[in-house]
Amino acid sequence: MRGSRSLFAFVCLALFFAGCGDDGAPLQPDSGTPDAGRPDAGAPDAGAPDGGTPPDRFPAATAGTIYSYATGCYSIGVVGTSKYLAASGGGDGFEVSATTLDAASRFRMRPADLGTYLLYDEAKRYLVSLDDAGLQRRPELLSDTTVSDAGVTTIDDSFQSEGEWDLVVSTDDPSRFRLRHHRSGGYLSAEGTLVGISDAAEILFFEQSDCATFPELTVDAEGTVTPKTFDDGSLFGFVDMHEHMFSNFAFGGGGIFHGAPFHRLGVEHALPDCEPFHGVHGEKDLLGFAFGNLGGLTTMDLLSLLLTLKSPVPHDTSGYPDFKSWPDAVRSPTHQMMYYKWVERAYMSGLRLLVQHATTNHVLCELLVGLGTQPQRYSCNDMVAVDRIVEETKALERYVDALHGGRGKGWFRIVTSPAQAREVIADGKLAVVLGIETSVLFDCFLNPPEGYSRCTEADVVAKLDEYYAKGLRALFPVHKFDNGFSAGDGHRGIMDLGNMIQSGDWSNYRLCADLGVADVPRNFDGGDVPFGGLNMPRAQYDAPPPNDFAGFMANPINVLVTGIDGVSTINDVVEILSAPPLTGDYCQSAGLTSLGEFLMAEMMKRGMLIEVDHMPRLSRRRAMEILEANDYPAVGSHGNNYNGEMYALGGVSDSGFGRCASASTPATMDDNYQRRVQLARDEGAFPAEGFGFDLNGFAGAPGPRFGDRAHCSDPQSHPITYPFKSYAGDVTFTQPTVGNRTIDFNTEGLVHIGLVAEYIEDVRRDGVTDEELEPLFKSAEGYIRMWEKAEARGAAIREE
User: Fold this and answer.
1) Letter string b/e over residues 383-421, b meaning 16 or more CB atoms within 10 A of that residue's CB
2) Cβ neighbours, 10 Å, residue 68
3) What is the CATH number of domain 73-207?
4) Where are the alpha helices (DSSP H) in 505-614?
5) Comparing C-alpha atoms, which of 525, 530, 727 is closest to residue 638?
6) CB 201, CB 188: distance < 8 Å
7) Rounded CA separation 248/335 (Å)
């Protein structure tokens, strides 16, 4: 997640302004696995009937498992009645009444999870039960988000849909099933009511045709991914080593970031109109405006928002199916860019390894909740959001499995070792690595707030063990703000004010030359200090803080004023922030703490992946010393290869392509990419480099080459046309759409992750050869080799 001064300038001006068993008892939310505890749970072929003896006057039933009916078209027969489920006479309910298949309702069986379904009939109506004895027939499902008459948006995090149904194998006859209402725990009876298990009806499925199509987005690609390897044995596929699919669950999960990568109830609930959160015409999406890469924004520009608290660049809020202004990763960073169908399109273009980082920021959450500009789903605490994001990523894996007919059958596979990643990619699927990029990893604050204590080495060991067991493998020790492991990454501007609010400390910059790190490659740490009045370097990094912002979320404005030592009015705060900038090359004057070094040592023992690109220069220098002393590789997923030293250690970094072609010289859009690959060769490393788009991380995205939004000095030629073949040749891409909207990559750029197919094809149109692109399509192999070395070195370190 990359920051920007303009983003945090907005934060500054905002500050100025002001959570049944088979006896028929009610079902309780389970631990993330909807089919946990069932007789067939964990057995992909459990209860697989052979159709059984046709009961009553039914024809032969369609054999299947609780998973295999996914996305199919079926009618439901109730055993012992010779009748099928059908719409009631009035049309607003369902009943067991049809005596022929022709008269029966035809349901599209849309999975909500493994073994759990939405039943969507031929008239586009859902089978639901609103917790009474009957069955209703509704055109839409209730939402977890509601807006009151007063315009107050509320999110019910304990929401369970009235339209989800669990398919359960009958304990009396494994060739038959029972239908259990997921929310209430009641079972379908022969009378068409919900009853306890003892009175539950047995049902059979009968394949039909002419069912309604369930609402969904398309991948706009034809063909089947074919597993392949290179002649030298390298895995085929590229890595995207830095993404944030679930930013909708960051920042308290309350709507700062709109849209989910999936939803149990489908795209209508995953990507709806954003007006409940961003306001009419998107005028409340001030963060989207500040983050939006619109160019030329200054703090004074953003201060004008004080007059109206409305974005000067409103947007059309419509989501599915019209999407008139979003997704737009280039200019609209507060809307979802990684819906799972878009990730699937990227997968079809060659994406084989994805690093999914949980990210959030508790100060930003506390600010907006405190100002009343967003609802709060749950705590603003960083690790609360991390835990939820990890759970949701695992839920997406189950969801994709469910859509493809059962456990392990989907293309989205979470992996916890390089051996698993190799196996998944060799099978032609997408390997997903879980990571964390947040400011206060493991709640290890520099200056703990009330209710927390300073982290100890024992705490770090316990947390590493906990999150390793949860499947996390890649960690950023620090991100933006000071914490118990390291000074913040040195990102400037209003980020410094946010850091002060969360730590109580003034900024802590000195000239890089005086610190002896002027020659250390920089990412965020370096250059001028815009808010010079906040800079008061301290001799001891963890000295007691002079400022106290306790209770910030309850009253941000008041606490900002009263929390700063020696300040009594808002004018005093303005005066401090208006002080002249410090010009020159300034760096954080603190680096890794002893606890930070301990964290690195313990990560290395476990073979975990250390992300170093948010370390300030002092921390980065010390980290490289530790890595070199242990011959341990690291990850630079924001593009810093440390002048090639990352490659020499077996580490990896990310890169990309230029966005403008030369009018006089072909095949130049990959020039920088090729230089980086050559540097890896020169350092004796595996010559491969992947992407790290940082989508959903407020980082922008590659823009267009044509049209009003392009920034190319030379005239551009050879635009993308359709159809075109993937690099592997097994998939044909057609022009992308999102619902009713057609996307033009040439004039819009990479508006979501699925257009990575066009991003790659664009450089091929520029004349870059497939041979020159081979290092990209070996980058998943390169990442896994780095991971394999980390595990090998970890094993050796444990034995020392």
Assistant:
1) bbbbbbbbebbbbbbbbbbbbbbbbebbbbbbbeebeeb
2) 18
3) 2.80.10.50
4) 512-515, 556-563, 570-577, 594-605
5) 525
6) yes
7) 9
- Are 486 and 478 within 8 A, CB to CB? yes
Query: Strand 430-438 to strand 472-475: parallel, antiparallel, or no bridges (unpaired)?
Result: parallel
What string of H, E and C letters represents the secondary structure of 597-630? HHHHHHHHHCCCEEECCCCCHHHHHHHHHHHHHC
Collapsed DSSP state (helix, strand, coil) of residue 217: coil
Torsion over CA: 211, 214, 217, 222 (sign)? negative
Dist. CA 218–CA 234, nearest whole Å: 31
What's the rounded mean pLDDT across residues 224-241? Answer: 98
Nearest 5 degrees, angle CA 704-CA 270-CA 367? 80
Residue with tokens 């703090």: 299
Amino acid identity of residue 439, one-letter, is: S
By the 8 A CB rule, do 445 and 433 touch? no
Q: Indicate the domain borders of the chain.
A: 73-207
- Give the C-alpha separation, 31 to 512, whole Å: 49
What's the length of the chain? Answer: 800
User: Virtual CA dihedral for 103, 105, 108, 113, nearest 10 degrees?
Assistant: -140
Given a contact cutoff of 8 angstroms between Cβ atoms, the answer to whether 7 and 698 are in contact is yes
Tell me the average pLDDT across 762-788. 99
Pairing of strands 116-120, 107-113: antiparallel
Tell me the whole-structure pTM to 2 decimals: 0.93
Residue 714 CB partners (closer than 8 Å, separation 6+): 660, 661, 662, 663, 664
Q: Packing angle between helix 779-799 and helix 418-426, nearest 10 degrees?
A: 160
pLDDT of residue 298: 54
Token pair in block for residue 720: 């993308």
> Minimal CA–CA distance to 125: which of 178, 85, 176, 98?
85
- Span 351-363, pLDDT tens digits: 999 999 999 999 9
Average confidence (pLDDT) over 390-410: 99
Instruction: Check residue 706 and report its DSSP letter.
Output: S
* pLDDT score of 314: 87
Can you tell me the distance from the alpha carbon of 278 to that of 373, in angstroms, rounded to the nearest whole number? 9
CA-to-CA distance for 286 and 278, rounded, in angstroms?
8
**299-306 contacts: CB < 8 A, separation 24 or more?**
299/5, 299/9, 299/12, 299/13, 299/494, 302/6, 302/9, 302/10, 302/13, 303/13, 305/10, 305/13, 306/13, 306/16, 306/17
pLDDT per residue as tens digits for the range 176-203? 999 999 999 999 999 999 999 999 999 9
Q: Is residue 755 within 8 Å of residue 746, measured between CB atoms?
A: no
Q: What digits encode the pLDDT tens for the residues 27-79?
A: 333 333 444 334 333 333 334 344 444 457 899 999 999 999 999 999 999 99
- Give tens-digit pLDDT for 655-664: 999 999 999 9
Tens digit of each residue's pLDDT (9 = 90 or more) over 3-12: 443 433 433 4
pLDDT mean across residues, the chain? 91
Percent of the chain predicted with pLDDT > 90:
82
More confident residue, 748 or 299: 748
Helix (H, G, I), strand (E, B) or coil at 209: coil
pLDDT in tens, 319-376: 999 999 999 999 999 999 999 999 999 999 999 999 999 999 999 899 888 888 788 8
Q: What percent of the chain has pLDDT over 70?
A: 91
Q: What are 656's two structure tokens?
A: 């990309």
Min mean pLDDT across 280-294, 416-430, 531-545, 779-793 is at 280-294
Which amino acid would we find at residue 534?
L
Cis peptide before 333 (omega within 30 of 0): no
Reference 491, options 638, 384, 297; nearest CA is 638
Report the pLDDT value the prediction gives residue 9, as an integer from 0 to 100. Answer: 40
Q: Are 313 and 33 in contact (CB under 8 A)?
A: no
766 touches 716 (CB < 8 A): no
- DSSP string across 266-292: -HHHHS--SHHHH-GGGTT-HHHHHHS
